[in-house]
Design a protein that fits this description.
homotetramer, 333 residues, alpha+beta, Chorismate synthase, AroC fold, five-stranded antiparallel sheet, globular
Chain lengths: 333, 333, 333, 333
């Protein structure tokens, strides 16, 4: 399913070069102020234009067709629609016989029996994350008092990110990056011990963002090299505040009220200007693909807000679910 | 929910020191040979006894109460039950007022309103993974021809694992570890572009295994430091075989028929013999906790098969789901 | 959730007097020919215009924004959008203080905390069934060889339906009706013994159609007055054909290959031209509501195709799910 | 799936003549007092012994293996197990070749590829409802203040139920019955306009009870013969109390705070003492089946509490879900 969530549920739809893409958000509580401006800041972070991002220019004006009345959410499903305007469909049909390395041309052809829309990556396109980011903006409103902060820690292996982008552009190549998301203000008690741990639910969504290849919480992979005496976080307040935060804000799959911290590995975009070897499925011989038009030299720049949105959607669901945990009214001790 | 899966669905239950723990597996296809021996090899990998593992001795005899007839799965829900026999309940009540660092004493108390069973970690215990491992053994049978291989690459930051375990034992401390899982023989086409990507579903389950702090696919975090020209995998056969496997067997969230590769960071167990600072919630003053009895010096040793089971459960679900993707019968082109 | 289905999943959205209503269909197999014409016949059955139906005139032109490429489903989510054009919003705000008998004015206000869109019934409007009917049209294409037939058996308690409608119109009142749906060509083996019985899944969806108050399968309520010797259906062929069909095509919650038969009770529409007593919530005194503008004298006329669509959506999901029931490949007996 | 519920989730397992049957209840809030006595009253209503019920004698002692500590629910999954003790397995294998009319012998064989446990009906047996009834008893505790009342209105078409049972026994036949369930004390606002209407969710579960063939809400099928002026219920209090209750406690799929009323048609049990025609699938010729041993002459007697439990499970889920509907804290108007 191209959908996620049990209470706050987001369904994505659309293809890169179809008429429109977007999301349906079901389970948003009523009474939340929502307008096109709700999405402006996050959509701006996702938009192209900066060095190292694709030159595809989309206005990304969100059309709100349902679930909002007099400026507030009604509690019924919200349809957010974005028109695709700047589509330049090349001859994508050739990718059916000459699949691009690192792309979903081959797996999409098998998964969808040859019927997938190949133009601009179709449903596999990063374009689809506009709907994800919009849904994430609503998710954040469901959690007033919770603050998200996402940074690009590294690009191309270094911290001088501008230089790394310029080098990649000069080489006609692409670079990966390392993102860090910090979430402050989450209540204690979100998540389940098994399967629906807060980390599991967030990872599920975040790994759906194109180009994400790994996720770690708190000290993450560094914890594999630590000792328990160094990793355990001492409690220092009755609210669960800890002296350190090696665990990244969760114990036993459940938030402990400290900052929730995760890092995400973003691979370099598959589309590059350099020629690449691949198989011509028609002839059965190896061939060389020359890079096509528009692409992101550093997709991590624009993935940041999508990762944040994906995490926010999982967390909003947990925040709403946590209201069901309370005891029923009555005379229980 | 303490359950996972859309078609092949696993529900876990039980507490560390309750009468029994186990799993219900719903959606297992009929006709699969299942007996207590089905689980023997994987349960042996999970069992304690080796250096660095807890001395708790459980026979782990799986009782099969439903869903199996004349040695074959019937297609109806399978109940697998394990008795808890070697339980030595100490005074766990004190952990309600003096929560152990790194444990779920605090978060569990909030999440469950003070009603959680604290004995031996209750539902948060690694003991619960016996049911997970048993369900994983069935999951593997649903995918004949798919082979799982899991290795402990590192413990305590090094590759001499025996030495690292001895050093941890001598110090009364615990160490983390790095696991690698390789899955061979998966068909092309498992997964969805958004949300239910193969990586997302596997990560969701794997992060439920206690002590897991991170997961990466293919080159994972290393990919964040690579260039596209170095990360892209050239296709070399019509079956999707690639010359390299930087992506770890998935493009666009969908398996590509190459080996599916992931690594998992396991933190050091929270329970150690050394004294640790924590807050006494009753007095409001800091206090020192002395480590209690039985624990794992290197939980990664026993987590390996649990991680493998968690991944297998997600993959079995996708294998069964993939049968629904075909075209309906008829005269479509 | 305003969504249904595990594999073939339909999400509805929209309000009666908002800008648009529609559906997202996720899980539709690729390769199914779909165009605006796909929906024409069923939408025509749902449209108003005949005696006894509302004079609201909507073109009901389906806009297909995703999931379709070159005339075929791609396998990705399909967005179907219908514009609302003929909206005449009266002063619906008064229904917040003077809720109409039989309507959802009161329950909607409580459920949505006063934020629901009241215009034309908002999300509770029968208008929303346009999306349901469109999704049902796709569901039927997923099951080639399965034939649906729905009849209005009775209106207002009698079989002379035209006369009943005229009488209702003359009285400024509304009438209910009895529908029968027959589905031929379903394979044997759809459904589960518990909870996800074929009857349970179909009833779940059908009872979502506004004004439906009951559903029965096979002999239904008449079976409560029968004896086993008269209700049991004798098998007469190895394909499961039975001499009679008292059970309506299902045994033990699972289709048996005979015609699947159900009947549905549709209540009279709540909106009538006659004055009705109700409470003025502002004053706390009883008052009389005079019927407002456009409505259906016999909503059962237009509910027929919506009931059929609701059932088709459940059955398409089961048809796709049944492909997962097969044995895994291998040497099992 | 043999499971139901989004927040309060019940999974059933077991076969009639296997070692045990039961249920896992996930999502029960913590702090609810639960002991074997919790189930005694409802299990007694389900138990056999009275005239017209099967002579199979089962102690039905619920074993509680998880999710309960010191007499209270912990909030983690609850396993309830019942041993099967009084099993007299006849030669059920013959029903594979000579399927019993009205039974699931044929559909079960197709659905489960010939691997289903045929003894005593296997997973299709009414025996499985012991787990359903136990889960229903917990569901009721989740809703303190909500009262359930279920009556057998008719058996065999009449209201002298004892006489109808005696006549059926004398004839070696079985009779159906009509049940009515009334639920008082439900809050206003449970349910969704589309798909997850309160009626749809309840019907989904109730139709899983073996032998149920129809369900109606409020006036139900009688409403199909009514006029709107006679069916609409006038509001008479600000809490939503209505002068009449034709709608049975729900408007627009959402509870309105009045008594929630439904009736259920139960068919006569398929197993009778009289000989019946059916096909011998081996020879391809018609044959006569002589009724086997133990059965219920009036299954509606024992189905009453199972119907009540099935409804309670759906309603408990909605009660817990309703806590998520509230506005988020903050300064929204």
């Amino acid at each position: 399913m191209n959908a996620t969530g049990r209470i706050f549920r987001v369904s994505l739809f659309g293809e890169s070069h179809g008429s429109a893409i977007g999301a349906v958000v079901d389970g948003c509580p009523p009474g939340i102020p929502i307008s096109p401006m709700t999405f402006a800041a996050d959509l701006a972070r996702r938009r192209s234009g900066a060095r190292g991002t694709t030159p595809r220019a989309e206005a990304d004006l969100p059309e709100l067709h349902s679930g909002i009345h007099l400026g507030f959410s009604t509690g019924t499903p919200i349809l957010i629609l974005f028109r695709n305007l700047d589509t330049r469909s090349q001859d994508y049909a050739r990718f059916a016989s000459v699949p691009r390395p690192g792309h979903a041309d081959f797996t999409g052809a098998v998964r969808y029996g040859g019927f997938a829309d190949p133009r601009g990556g179709g449903h596999f396109s990063g374009r689809i994350t506009a709907g994800l980011v919009a849904a994430g903006a609503i998710a954040k409103l469901v959690m007033p008092g919770v603050a998200f902060s996402t940074r690009l820690l590294e690009a191309g292996g270094g911290t001088d990110i501008d230089a790394a982008v310029e080098a990649a552009l000069a080489a006609g190549d692409s670079i990966g990056g390392l993102l860090e998301l910090r979430v402050a203000g989450l209540p204690v008690g979100l998540g389940e011990p098994f399967f629906d741990s807060v980390e599991g639910l967030v990872a599920h969504n975040v790994l759906a963002v194109p180009a994400v290849r790994g996720i770690e919480f708190g000290d993450g992979f560094a914890a594999a090299r630590m000792r328990g005496s160094g990793h355990n976080d001492a409690f220092v307040s009755r609210e669960g505040k800890t002296a350190t935060n090696h665990c990244g804000g969760a114990n036993g799959g459940i938030t402990n009220g400290n900052e929730f911290v995760l890092r995400v590995a973003v691979k370099p975009a598959s589309t590059i200007a350099l020629p690449q070897d691949t198989l011509d499925f028609t002839t059965g011989a190896m061939t060389s693909l020359v890079g096509e038009g528009r692409h992101d030299a550093c997709i991590a720049l624009r993935a940041a807000v999508a990762v944040e949105a994906a995490a926010a959607i999982a967390l909003a669901d947990l925040v709403l679910l946590s209201r069901c945990h309370d005891l029923p009214q009555g005379d229980h001790p």
